[in-house]
């Protein structure tokens, strides 16, 4: 088992008991869209974590009706079996691409580190928007996730709103309040995919991407704005 595979299995088994807990809420997203914060807020509201699911672990995932005590996170565009509430957590593409590029460049165990690890941060971000090897263009990933949300009747929630006010997430899903201290504790907990350091250049790069006229970047923002207008 490679290091990346081991990390993914660690994330699933650390709290989920190999998928034995059935969630009533599924928070699905493109990687680096705010999963860690959403998880912390739901835990702060009293929900218990039932694990993270990608396409590989998708077959383990079975949902139950609203009202259950468990929630799960996912990065998948595959249909999910069972009732329950589905959420699409979406984020500004510039922030996603910069976070993704920075993460991959610093994780030698990531399968795309070989392709992006020797690039400067800006070059790696451009590659993520345009697509490389087995990594499809970011616009296609947004389109696929949006199609999943429409087919699944998922509630689209903007990460920026949750970051500004965590209570917004709970208002959108119609549940009660949360414990801010619990959210802070859960944000600080170990997570195998959490970034702990940021490049000082990231903020300026995000601003430049938002103003860019590059076709792959604009196509991605078009999908993002479509999701925003429909949420």
Describe the structure.
- The protein has eleven helices and five strands; from the N terminus they run αβαβββααααβααααα.
- It is of the alpha/beta class.
- Strands 2-3-1-4-5 form a five-stranded parallel sheet, with helices on both faces.
- It has one domain (3-230): Rossmann fold (3-Layer(aba) Sandwich).
- The termini are far apart.
- The protein is globular, with a radius of gyration of 17 Å.
Supply Rg: 17 Å
Strand content: 5-15%
Q: Provide the number of structural domains.
A: 1
Number of alpha- plus pi-helical segments? 11
CATH topology descriptor: Rossmann fold
Shape: globular
- In round numbers, the mean pLDDT is 87
Quickly give the CATH architecture.
3-Layer(aba) Sandwich
Query: Order of strands across the biggest sheet?
Result: 2-3-1-4-5
**How widely separated are the two ends?**
40 Å
Computed structural class: alpha/beta
As a percent range, the share of helical residues equals 40-55%
CATH class: Alpha Beta
Largest sheet: 5 strands, parallel
Element order: H for helix, E for strand: HEHEEEHHHHEHHHHH
The oligomeric state of the chains shown is single chain
Q: In a few lines, what is going on in this structure?
A:
By secondary structure, the protein is an alpha/beta fold. It has helices at 3-16, 35-44, 93-106, 113-116, 121-130, 138-152, 159-164, 167-173, 180-187, 202-211, 215-230, and strands spanning 25-29, 48-54, 70-75, 85-90, 155-158.
């Amino acid at each position: 088992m490679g290091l990346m595979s081991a990390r993914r299995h660690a994330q699933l088994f650390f709290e989920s008991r190999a998928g034995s807990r059935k969630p009533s809420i599924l928070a699905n997203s493109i990687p680096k869209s705010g999963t860690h914060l959403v998880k912390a807020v739901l835990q702060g509201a009293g929900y218990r974590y039932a694990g993270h699911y990608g396409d590989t672990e998708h077959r383990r995932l079975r949902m139950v009706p609203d009202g259950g005590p468990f929630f799960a996170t996912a990065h998948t565009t595959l249909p999910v079996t069972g009732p329950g509430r589905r959420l699409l957590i979406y984020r500004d593409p510039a922030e996603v691409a910069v976070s993704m590029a920075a993460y991959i460049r610093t994780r030698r165990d990531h399968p795309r580190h070989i392709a992006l690890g020797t690039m400067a941060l800006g070059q790696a971000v451009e590659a993520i928007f345009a697509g490389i090897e087995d990594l499809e263009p970011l616009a296609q990933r947004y389109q696929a996730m949006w199609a999943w949300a429409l087919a699944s009747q998922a509630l689209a929630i903007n990460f920026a709103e949750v970051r500004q006010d965590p209570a917004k997430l709970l208002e959108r899903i119609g549940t009660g309040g949360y414990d801010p201290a619990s959210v802070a504790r859960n944000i600080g907990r170990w997570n195998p995919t959490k970034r702990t350091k940021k490049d000082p250049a990231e903020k300026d790069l995000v601003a430049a991407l938002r103003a860019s006229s590059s076709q792959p970047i604009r196509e991605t923002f078009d999908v993002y704005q479509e999701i925003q207008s429909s949420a």
